[in-house]
Q: What sequence folds into this?
């Protein structure tokens, strides 16, 4: 509906402003003919440009439409242009989406027309304004009071139709009447009032109802129904209700966001119409809205009375073809500072500062009310006026006034503060001749941990400098000292804990909850172990070690080389020390260390996969258990196993557990530091490829399984480690060729074939192949490269499951002309130097 209306309005604007490019004059003689304009020749971009420019023109629909027709544009041309604009605007509306602020709620909420309905829906009618310009979403808060009430959105608002028709509602053409007859006779009639003002009832004929209210119409209809229902009002009854309402056309013109003609229900009031039209523009008046009927003004609408006072405008019944005119505002002032609704306000002539403040919601709690500063425009300068509280009701406001309500100072009077180690610190009222002891009494006295040797009163001198007055809280308690307090004095009492470093003790090592704990007098080693959750299973319970800070007495005794004092204690499972050690108590900052038992070992798990009789995970029996021993426990290899392809996969020092992300190796800290160092080196070395900078968590180790099985415990029989995976594949029958060959592929293994034959089967070398660096990766993870001696090339043998890798030649960078020039100059300089030396020597 909005798009159709905008198109109708803009079509006329564009025709006048951009096709004719003539000044706005009303003289018929100066208006050129428009008979030769072809709307179809205009491009979409041209029309969109016209839309953007026309929106800034500021002309009303009535003015532009009159001028366009006066210049000779036909109705058919206007209709054709309107169709083109609908097409352009329709596509742009899909990309320039209007932000619907809580649209679902507002669809129902705005169907009401009273402020209480908005409040019940949880929507502030004076909240943020959402503006849309040229189909591009922008959001901002309007500074004009009341502007944000008219949320600029695309939905259509109607009054609530689920209510009884008002008693003063006058029937007219288009209204539907429903007549229900029940009792001795039953009948239902439904009829619309005709343009002539009557409805037709079978067996009765036309009944004229135009201009009657529903009550009078019911009386008239019952009177006519008695001609066919003789017992009406005896044992036959009838009821007349209003069904479908007629529609009326309301024209909205002037400084309105979306001027035009709106088709609404006859129940609609002026507020409904203004919401549909988007309300006044930034230049429109909120106070002087006029309603015209048949060329005569019948009412004025002051939206401030509606927004501020909740005035009911439902009694102002609109009729078909009524005109709502919004003129430009007359006086507008700015109210800022400590008021409840800072904004731009429109004031009528003669309204005072007091009324302006009432529109702004009154003062905030922090406002300074005795005097208000007002900036006013004079002829060519500005001036400032100070208005006292007594003059608010008489001081008239002028257009352009800027009212600033200042905030009261953040200063106190009759106040004293008590802070720190008292039972009830805070602010207190200071009375005449109030003493320090009285202030302490108001704060419920000193706390048990108060430092009783010194307190401080901070006082502000007349020149605003601070001075400190020290006193003894103990003397205050004894009654041997007191002090008269002044306004804004601050009494500070420190606690014993605040004057020293926080006391704590530490426990580390094989304990359930290592960390720091608050120190308590008399805390023992057993107590701390108990607080930390007790030992881990890995703890060495034979002794506990305590490290204590070195005190100044040790330095006096000449023990300058001491870093800490070490105490060792035996402890049992019941967390009890020996009798001689029970007297030992911890001191602040002691560190208790629980060692790991040298005999404690967690199960070491390895895995065997592939061609063994019992594949799976195995726990090592001893620290130096070897491959052959675990294979024997796994039942040995099967008849399908390929020992030459067996591989041992082992974790590196960079392996991280998937569960916690920590490096699981015992040298985790060292490996972490080493990794960080290498990463820093790699980042600085541009020659190191990114692929070479990866830190593998696991890597394969080439093993000779046949030799291990033949000589258990020999040099090839490796000792297993945590996480090792022994993989024994089936016999492989293929060879893979990768790298710089014409057709990298997997080829069937041939026992008699050598390296060159497999490369030939892959299409042979490419021109970029580095042949002398060819190498073979065997199934067990080991590798062997090509070599040559005295010009005789020796190629590695190929086994089933091998991979042949042909690397590429390194990229040779061509020298730039600048580099060539630099070398030439260097050589020339060197030649000249040699000639000079030779000549000087001769």
A:
């Amino acid at each position: 509906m909005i798009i159709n209306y905008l198109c109708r309005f803009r079509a006329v604007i564009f025709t006048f402003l951009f096709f004719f490019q003539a000044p706005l004059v009303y003289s018929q003689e100066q208006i050129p003919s428009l008979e030769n304009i072809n709307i179809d020749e205009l491009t979409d971009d041209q029309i969109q440009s016209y839309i953007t420019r026309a929106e800034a023109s500021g002309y009303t629909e009535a003015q532009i439409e009159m001028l366009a027709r006066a210049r000779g544009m036909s109705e058919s041309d206007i209709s054709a242009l309107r169709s083109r604009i609908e097409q352009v605007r329709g596509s742009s509306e899909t990309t320039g989406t209007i932000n619907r602020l809580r649209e679902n709620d507002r669809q129902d909420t705005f169907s009401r027309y009273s402020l209480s309905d908005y409040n019940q829906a949880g929507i502030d009618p004076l909240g943020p304004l959402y503006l849309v310009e040229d189909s591009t979403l922008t959001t901002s808060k309007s500074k004009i009071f009341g502007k944000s009430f008219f949320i600029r959105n695309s939905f259509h608002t109607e009054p609530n139709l689920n209510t009884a028709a008002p008693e003063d509602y006058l029937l007219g053409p288009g209204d539907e009447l429903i007549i229900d007859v029940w009792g001795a006779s039953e009948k239902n009639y439904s009829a619309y009032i005709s343009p002539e003002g009557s409805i037709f009832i079978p067996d009765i004929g036309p009944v004229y109802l135009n201009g009657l209210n529903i009550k009078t119409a019911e009386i008239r209809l019952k009177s006519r129904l008695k001609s066919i229902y003789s017992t009406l009002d005896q044992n036959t009854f009838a009821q007349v209700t209003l069904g479908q309402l007629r529609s009326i056309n309301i024209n909205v013109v002037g400084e309105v966001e979306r001027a035009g003609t709106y088709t609404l229900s006859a129940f609609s009031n002026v507020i409904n119409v203004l919401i549909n039209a988007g309300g006044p523009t930034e230049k429109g008046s909120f106070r002087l809205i006029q309603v015209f009927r048949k060329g005569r003004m019948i009412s004025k609408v002051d939206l401030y009375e509606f927004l501020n006072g909740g005035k009911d405008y439902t009694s102002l019944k609109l009729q078909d073809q009524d005109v709502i005119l919004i003129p430009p505002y007359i006086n507008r002032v700015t109210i800022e500072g400590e008021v409840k609704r800072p904004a731009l306000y429109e004031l009528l002539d003669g309204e005072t500062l007091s009324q302006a403040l009432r529109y702004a919601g009154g003062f905030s709690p922090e406002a300074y009310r005795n005097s208000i500063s007002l900036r006013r425009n004079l002829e060519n300068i500005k001036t400032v006026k100070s208005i006292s509280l007594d003059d608010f009701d008489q001081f008239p406001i002028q257009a352009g006034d800027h009212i600033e309500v200042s905030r009261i100072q953040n200063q106190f009077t009759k106040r004293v503060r008590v802070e720190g180690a008292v039972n009830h610190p805070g602010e207190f009222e200071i009375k005449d001749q109030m003493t320090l002891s009285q202030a302490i009494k108001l704060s419920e006295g000193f706390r048990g941990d108060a430092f009783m040797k010194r307190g401080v009163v901070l006082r502000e001198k007349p020149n605003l400098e601070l001075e400190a007055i020290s006193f003894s809280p103990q003397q205050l308690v004894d009654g041997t000292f007191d002090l008269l307090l002044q306004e804004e004095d601050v009494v500070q009492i420190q606690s014993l804990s605040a004057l020293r470093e926080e006391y704590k003790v530490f426990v580390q090592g094989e304990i359930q909850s290592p960390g720091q704990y608050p120190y308590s007098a008399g805390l023992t080693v057993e107590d701390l172990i108990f607080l930390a959750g007790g030992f881990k299973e890995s703890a060495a319970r034979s002794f506990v070690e305590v490290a204590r800070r070195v005190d100044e007495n040790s330095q006096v005794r000449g023990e300058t080389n001491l870093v800490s004092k070490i105490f060792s204690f035996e402890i049992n499972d019941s967390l009890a020390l020996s009798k001689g050690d029970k007297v030992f108590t911890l001191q602040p900052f002691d560190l208790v260390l629980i060692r790991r038992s040298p005999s404690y070992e967690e199960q070491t798990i390895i895995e065997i996969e592939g061609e063994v009789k019992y594949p799976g995970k195995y726990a090592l029996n001893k620290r130096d258990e070897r491959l052959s021993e675990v294979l024997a426990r796994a039942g040995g290899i099967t008849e399908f196993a390929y020992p030459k392809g067996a591989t041992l996969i082992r974790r590196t020092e960079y392996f991280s557990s998937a569960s916690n992300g920590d490096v699981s190796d015992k040298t985790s800290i060292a490996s972490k530091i080493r990794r960080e160092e290498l990463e820093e080196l790699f980042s600085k070395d541009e020659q190191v490829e990114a692929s070479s900078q990866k830190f593998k968590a696991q890597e394969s180790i080439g093993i000779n399984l046949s030799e291990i099985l033949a000589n258990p415990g020999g040099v090839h029989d490796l000792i297993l480690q945590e996480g090792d995976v022994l993989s024994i594949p089936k016999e492989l029958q293929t060879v893979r060729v990768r790298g710089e060959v014409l057709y990298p592929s997997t080829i069937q293994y041939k026992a008699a074939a050598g390296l060159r034959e497999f490369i030939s089967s892959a299409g042979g070398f490419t021109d970029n192949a580095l042949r002398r660096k060819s190498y073979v990766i065997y199934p067990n993870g080991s590798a062997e490269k090509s070599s040559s001696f005295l010009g005789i090339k020796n190629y590695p043998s190929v086994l089933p499951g091998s991979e042949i890798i042909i690397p590429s030649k390194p990229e040779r960078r061509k020298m730039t002309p600048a580099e060539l020039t630099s070398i030439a100059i260097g050589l020339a300089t060197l030649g000249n130097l040699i000639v000079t030396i030779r000549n000087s020597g001769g």
User: Anything to note?
Assistant: The longest strand covers residues 176-183. The chain has 19 helices and 39 strands.
